[in-house]
Amino acid sequence: MQIIGVFFISNVLIEVAYFILDEFYLKTTDATGIQRQKRLTLIPLMRSFVKYFVYFSAGVTILKLIGIDPAPILAGAGIVGITCFFL
Questions:
Q1: pTM, whole model, 2 decimals?
Q2: What is the three-class DSSP state of 65?
Q3: CA-wise closest residue to 57 among 13, 1, 21
Q4: What is the DSSP annotation of 9-59?
Q5: How large is the average pLDDT for residues 40-53?
Q6: What is the mean pLDDT of residues 57-66?
């Protein structure tokens, strides 16, 4: 039941973040044409960042709820990432 709650809360957080980005970042009236284009370019990037951050946090929380310690998994992924970076 807690896993379903984590999934639901993560989806709600993503929708709230999307609303905040659209409402407050895009709807400014004093933006010129170039500033508006810059904002239209940055909004999808910020949306993706928020979405992946929330899903990553939800995944770690679900692993903890199941009883799996996510620290060794994250450390191993970090070591593999560093190794791939230097190859």
A1: 0.74
A2: helix
A3: 13
A4: HHHHHHHHHHHHIIIIIH--TT--HHHHHHHHHHHHHHHHHHHHHHHHHHH
A5: 89
A6: 93
- Mean per-residue pLDDT of the chain: 87
Q: What is the greatest pairwise CA distance in the chain?
A: 52
CA distances from 14 to 27, 38, 74 (A): 19, 22, 23
What's the confidence (pLDDT) of residue 38? 80
Q: Which two tokens stand for residue 6?
A: 């984590």
Q: Residues 1, 65: contact at Cβ < 8 Å? A: no
- Residues 67 and 39: their CA atoms lie apart, in Å, by 42
HSE-up (13 A, CA, CB side) for residue 54? 19
Sign of the alpha-carbon torsion through 17, 15, 48, 59: positive
